[in-house]
Amino acid sequence: MDLEHLQIHMNRMNTFSYNPQEYELEKASNSYLMSLLAVVVGLPLPIINLIATVSFYISNRKSTYFVRWHCTQALLSQLSLFLMNSFGFWWTISIIFGSRNIQNNYIAYIFTLLLVNIFEFGGTVYSAIETRKGKHVEWFFYGPLTHLICKP
Amino acid sequence: MKKVLLQFLTLSTIFCFLFFGLNSINWMSLFQINKLSEKTEKKLGEICWDMFKDEHAEIKDSTALACIDSLLNAICIPNNIDKKKIKVHLLESEEVNAFALPGNHLVIYSNLIKESGSPEALCGVIGHELAHLEQSHVTKKLIKEIGIATLTTIAGGENTGAIKEVVKTLTSTAYDRSLEKEADVKSVDYLTAAKINPIPFADFMAKTDTRKTSTELENWFSTHPDSKERAEYIKAYTKKKGVIKNIKVLSDESWEKLNHY
User: What is the distance of C-alpha A25 from the center of its chain?
Assistant: First the structure.
């Protein structure tokens, strides 16, 4: 099963409560693109993604419901990825500069992170494209969670 | 809310399955991490040993070597350790020390034999150093403290300064606490499999606490911290293993002879 098919299984495409305007589609799509910023500029620090997404979220917190909803979904997904990546990042630092050794579970964790990041990257690009087309993409777990947090 | 929790649990389960699945693959051996090539390890061992040979007189007396060989046989055979690969060296020295070098070299100082007080305690020390060799602690420690690139360079040519650093690392600093404990526990396993009582080994360890004024005696123990604590967990582990067998590994006469070097 390729990544795109897997994404379709993981993400649900629903109709939104109203038909968003063209400028809303662009802003909502940008919220996903912001979370890819660090990958695009090639920075390894996991905090960069989160800062970019948080800044975009704050600047759009008074925007329309559609934009806020997608900003929140992008932020939540980045937040969990940030926690996982930070753990891996500090583990690596403690191996390089501290007294820890490379162990099997470290390598397994790094590979797990790699797979999660690839999946998240694919999902983010997919959501950015689909949102720009006017389709409402709800991610597995993050979609329902966003509905709980983001109200019209 | 229920839907969110259920989906969170599903995602967490997928993550755990992925992690534990990947963790079941032996990446360390797949990527050959913490491993020096056999040739490099052998060469490093030879270089280190050459340095010791120049600084200390080697005891080549056949009786003494036969006694050490008997002790080594007593441990190696029941534990399926290939004795042929172990190169034992007995050195004349006032220091109380024994250590393992890369390439399966096992160095024992004459004063350690005297201070150990019994063949069983000496077997415990030998077992401890054998465990360091068998569990690849020696190379792990060198890679961690000196680095794989430097070690490969040392093995490839002459670099006296760097060799001294390797020797210093192997003889004067402790392994990680966890590795020391692992070697102690493994030594008890070796001894019990060989039907040798591990208690004299624990007593030898405990003895250092009451004889701290002896600088020679401190040497082996200064590289192996918390002697009292170690003596206690060795005794506790021995007790857990059950009935202590106590075969005589060396005759009194042979032990007396060995103590005269």
Answer: 17
